[in-house]
User: Fold Reverse transcriptase domain-containing protein from Mytilus coruscus.
Amino acid sequence: MNAQRELRKQMRKEKYEDRQKIYSEIMQNPSMKKFYQLINRNRGQSKTSTTSIIKGPNCDISDPKNQAKRFSQYMEDLFVPKDNNYDNTFLELSTVRTNAIDLIYDNMNIDLEPLSETELIEAIGKLNTGKATDEFGISAEHLKTARSILSPIFTSIFNQIIATKQIPLFFKTGITNPVLKKLKDPTLVESYRGITVTPTITKLFEYVLLPRLTKKFIQADMQFGFTEGYSMLIAAFLVSECKSESKHVTLKPLYRIAVDSQTAFDVVSHIILLDKLYECGIHPKLWSIVKDLYTDMSSKIKWKGEISDKFPIQQGVRQGGVLSTHLYKVYINNVLHELMKIRVGMKIGNIYTGTPTCADDIALLSDDIEELQIMLNTVLRNAKQDRVTIHPTKTNAVIINKGKSVRKNLQWNLGTTCITPTNQTKHLDIDRLRKFHINCLRKFQSLSQRTAVCAVYLLIGALPIEAELHKHQLSFLYSLLNNGNDSIQQLNQRQISININNPGSFYNIVSKTLELYNLPNLEFLLNNQMNKLQWKHQYKIAINNYWSKTYNDQSANKSTLKHLCVDQVEIGKPHKIWQSIGSSVTEVKRFINHCRIATGTYLLQTNIAKFSNNKETATCPLCGLEEEDMIYTHAHKLHTAT
Assistant:
């Protein structure tokens, strides 16, 4: 018993020392990485193995080896092409075309420019570090460390692969890790998404191929997913601008249908994908290489340390693969081009904005009910041709800017399923965010609720939530004004020229932000593009100066802040009280009292007597000689015990 007690005591001691070490590191050298390490450590939850039981077809499975086998069976079945009322005629035509293309390309001898060592070195630099090793024990760090030695070797090997158009079998393998989807039942294999760790050399090869594959690809203007310089924020921005246009200009309701595809990446038909790649005009050798890369693919399941037998992959693009995102964009590009070509959907002026898309998530926007049905029919027809299933229950409709003219019992048809409008969720009010933000800053500094708001911000050098939102606005503005997308460029010109006064438009909102901080106006920024770092530096200084002046002015009028030395503080830098703090817990507690004294919230006996209408004494409880005020508290020699 004594030995067990001593063991537990030693374990608690080591945990305490480990915790104090982390706290000390954060205080001495703070970083976001260490902050999130602390959060994950305190959570103490694994992100992968979330259950001890997996439900099988006949009974529950508790053995990790059999669980891995069950996942393998599920994934193998998932990657087998199925007929779910798809357009088989389209598949047959694609098969004929693909076979004909393959036969023609086999008899062609068109040289492809050889890879250079420079391309290899650039590709090695793109490999993500800090990731798990592949099934051969190779990581990105190995290649990066020896890049000068390995780059000529890999250049020769990859050029030989391209010349022969034959991919080594080990390039086509991988380890699939089941990752639980958000808010899903962990006992069901259907609740997991397979993330595949491909061989590091395969990733390197794909990084080399990617620039050549994308060279002639014309991406649809409404696709904003998995593209450098674009983000889902731009898709959301288009929805917001359409909402503003319908509310303040066309005065019509805006209808939106969010289309949800089931396991989109996992059901990509390789035959149809190759057919679409040919239409993109890629080099014959690159086409043959992609075809061979997706022939005879296999993977294994890794679950709780167990590795399953390998299973074939007959369809889909790997989630986590370097080429996967580009190939999927090629796969769904046709439907976006078709909708834009026939121009059904919402338009701002004559600029088409009807299908903002992020990867496989498509939003259909229109101010006309019948037009939206045409869009839905077009998406469904393309989905059947591409052998993709649209989820009937997760595909939802919302009426934005609902007016009296909207008829009752409104619905749209998705095949045999009826889609009816749902209630739109309410936005989170800025006042709630502001209160949450200031309360967090108070608690970080252990300040009382009655501490002046300006003092809370100035002590830590933090910006209010409005300023943080303004920084994001101005950063996003740069992304819009410097965007290479034709539709976005046209929208910038139109909205800034003739629609700047629309109160719901982002351009109107951001123009007021620019005016608030005395920054250049939208027209100037549109015509005089500057470097991103220069713009970021400019608006950061403007925002910090504005709020420093605002809070310094507020502090000057508050008698409780006379000890704060507001002339020496500014936003962006912590107060000297926090700058001089040590890393120990005792030091932190001591400096908390310093902050309370500086903000006039430290309770002295004179304050207690005043607040209690002199029911409590103002005499110093330590010496009992005189009233305890600020001067008496700091004059330690006056405290003589009686």
The chain has 24 helices and 16 strands. The two ends are 50 Å apart (CA to CA). The first strand starts at residue 54 and ends at 55.
